[in-house]
Predict the 3D structure of the following.
Amino acid sequence: MICGNYHSAMKKHIKYFVIAIYLTLNQTAGFGQDLKVTPLTFNDAYERMTQNSHVLKRANFEINEKEAERKAAFGLHAPRVFVTANAIQMADPLTLDLTPVRDAINPLYETLGKYGNFSGVPNPDPNTSGVMPILPDNISTQVLRTKIQEGQTKMNAGEWDKMIQEKQFATVNANFIWPLYTGGKINAANKASQIYEEEAGLQKEQKQGELLSELVTRYYGLVLAEQACKVREQVSEAMKKHLFDSQKLSEQGQIAKVEFLHAQVAHSDADRELKKANREATIVKRALQNTMAIGDSNEFVPASQLFILKSIEDENIFIQMALKNNPQLKHVDSKRELAATGVKLEKSNYLPTVALTGTYDLANKDLSPYIPDWMVGVGLNWSLFEGNARHRKLQAARFKEDQVEQAGLKAEEDIKTVIKKLHQQLGMQVEQLEELDKTLEFAKTYVDSRDKAFHEGLSTSTELVDANLLLAKVKIERLQALYNFDVSLANLLQVCGSPDLFLEYQTSNQAITESI
């Protein structure tokens, strides 16, 4: 009779419970008609991240910057044309005083103009030159003395203190310098700029790998959080049912009141854990939105599931992949090239620099007329001694090469160690999952047996609650093992320099997915 009343009351309660759920769902559906929730696969999340990521956009701008610098360095081969303007004030004008020359020549003019005797002067008259081609000596002397006296007069009247340059003048010149030989400096600068551009590309590649690992951590972290919420919902529903059963059994006197009180505590704890799980899922979701660089208004649910691979390649394959593709090792290679270029640059300081130069006078004011309008020339600059500084700088550049070499060897060993560690973690998660599969079956059987025993009065509320909590714990540990596998796989592929392979592993035939 008691059991009949119990089952009748339970059916009535379930009926009301179903009706309440139906009404709640209808109200929720009506309230949320305008709220569109989009299923989001991991590939979709990856596309959004690559399109919106501020980190990748910054990396692209850095690549553009280094590309512009490389093109600027190439311009060092071309001539440099520029305009200069100068306004100059000197203390005194530049003059050339030739009066000592005049004074030295003047006595000779005076002597020859008064006392000189000359002969053999050609007859300048064409009418008489045929009869008398040479003037007589007296006439020749008179003619030449006259000419000498005229020359002396002009010489004394001339400007013997000559102005060369006014003390104030201004010029506007067009100039060019064209390096013909720099000992390798220009080639070294171009090589260095090319290496910097390649390094910017490697930085972007490394950032992409880091972002993919971050996306895996947060996307599958959200999947894990939502799956954990479902587990907590299952526990909450089980505790709600247990509370109802305990209440009826307590009212009928089949169990002690303390058992009913314990069921109330368990139900309260289950609700609290469910709310906590929902809050944690919200936090992880916000972090994922941050990684994808999308706003809070974008409502979505993760459509991809946690997965594990049936088998994974040997660690040596991943090591070889890393030695070939790892951005950090590529970065070390570029540093090697940069260090070698630095050595060549320091060696070029021992060699001369040869350049073609030219100047053209575009405009001037009060510039000396003796200055030419244009000049072209070849110049050489060769530093022969700099106090042993060049030798020390060359030594420093060679030490830099040794540093980079040792850094490369250390990086290789570190990467090998990390790959071995991550590969072991993958194997460990596979083993954990296999053991948890067995434990899960035991836990389910244990819950069923405890539930049956409780209704028969052979088990306490505490034992049934503990059985349900144990089952929830095993389920969450299984989900955690899957999540750890996915994160370790993403980190492994990032270290290998092939993070995009994660997308292939995720959808391969080797992938085994699971959800609650």
Q: What stands out?
A: Residues 1-34 have pLDDT under 50 and may be disordered. Strands lie at 38-40, 80-89, 94-97, 161-165, 168-181, 300-302, 306-309, 353-365, 374-381, 511-514.
